[in-house]
C-alpha cells in the first residue's frame, strides 16, 4: 500500500525541482484529532484491540487510510499514542535534588494508578495490550523504557552529587524505589493511594541509601 512516502522514506516528503526535498502539505491537526477520537470511540463501544483495523478507524474518523499512514506506521504505533493521550502526562522534573525528582516521578506513577482505577477504558486497554505482544512491546519501548531511563538518570545524578551512596547497583535502586509504588498502584487495586505516598516512599528508601556518616 502507498503510504505517501517520499524522499528518504519520510512520510509526506515531496521532491522540489533540482532534487531537494521540501515539505508536503502541513498535517491537519483536525484530522489527527479525528483519528485519535475514532480509536477511543471504537474502544468505548467495546471492540477488542485485535478487531480494530486501520480501515475501520479511517471510516469512523471520516478520513482515508493514507491520512492515517502518513502519521503512524501501523495501528500499534497509533494505539500507543492514543493510550499516552489517555494517561496522565509525563511530569516536568524540578531538578533541585534527587529526592525532589524522585518524588515527582513516583507521584506520576500514583496518578497513573488512580487514572487506571477511575477509567474503565484505560484499565481495559492496558489489560488487552499485554495479550498483543507487538503492541505491548511498542508501549514498553516508547513509554515504559523512557520513564525507567529517567529514573536511572535521576539516581546517577544523585550519586554524582553525593546524595546517594556510590556502592549500590543503580538498576536495583530503581526497582527499590519505583517497585513499591507500582505494587500499590497496579497490583493492589484496593490499596489506598494517599496524596503524600510518593513523599513517604522516597523518604523511607533514601534514608537507607544516603552516604554513611563519618
Q: How do the helices and strands line up, and which of them pair or pack?
A:
Elements: E1 14-15, E2 21-22, H1 29-44, H2 54-61, H3 65-69, H4 75-86, H5 98-118, H6 120-129, H7 133-160, H8 170-187, H9 197-209
Antiparallel strand pairs: 1-2
Helix pairs in contact: 1-2, 1-4, 4-7, 5-6, 5-7, 5-8, 5-9, 7-8, 8-9
Please give the largest β-sheet: 2 strands, antiparallel
What overall form do the CA principal axes indicate? elongated
β-sheet strand percentage: under 5%
What is the residue-mean pLDDT, rounded to a whole number? 85
Total strands? 2
Instruction: Specify the helix fraction band.
Output: 55-70%
Order of helix and strand elements from N to C terminus: EEHHHHHHHHH
Radius of gyration, in angstroms, nearest whole number: 21 Å
The total count of helices amounts to 9
Strands of the largest sheet, in order across it? 1-2
What is the CA-CA span between the terminal residues? 68 Å
Structural class: mainly alpha
Unreliable residue runs: 1-26
Amino acid at each position: 500500500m502507498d503510504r505517501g512516502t517520499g524522499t528518504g522514506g519520510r512520510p509526506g516528503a515531496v521532491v522540489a525541482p533540482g532534487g531537494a526535498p521540501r515539505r508536503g502539505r502541513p498535517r491537519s491537526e483536525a484530522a489527527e484529532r479525528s483519528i485519535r477520537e475514532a480509536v477511543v470511540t471504537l474502544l468505548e463501544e467495546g471492540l477488542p484491540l485485535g478487531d480494530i483495523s486501520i480501515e475501520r478507524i479511517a471510516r469512523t474518523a471520516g478520513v482515508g487510510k493514507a491520512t492515517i499512514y502518513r502519521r503512524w506506521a501501523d495501528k500499534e504505533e497509533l494505539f500507543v499514542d492514543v493510550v499516552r493521550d489517555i494517561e496522565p502526562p509525563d511530569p516536568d522534573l524540578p531538578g533541585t535534588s534527587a529526592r525532589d525528582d524522585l518524588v515527582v516521578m513516583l507521584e506520576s506513577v500514583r496518578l497513573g494508578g488512580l487514572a487506571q482505577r477511575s477509567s474503565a477504558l484505560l484499565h481495559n486497554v492496558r489489560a488487552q495490550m499485554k495479550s498483543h505482544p507487538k503492541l505491548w512491546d511498542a508501549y514498553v519501548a516508547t513509554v515504559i523504557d523512557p520513564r525507567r531511563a529517567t529514573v536511572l538518570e535521576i539516581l546517577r545524578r544523585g550519586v554524582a552529587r553525593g546524595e546517594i551512596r556510590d556502592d549500590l547497583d543503580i538498576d536495583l535502586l530503581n526497582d527499590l524505589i519505583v517497585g513499591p509504588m507500582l505494587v500499590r498502584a497496579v497490583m493492589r487495586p484496593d490499596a489506598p493511594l494517599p496524596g503524600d505516598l510518593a513523599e513517604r516512599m522516597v523518604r523511607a528508601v533514601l534514608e537507607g541509601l544516603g552516604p554513611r556518616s563519618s
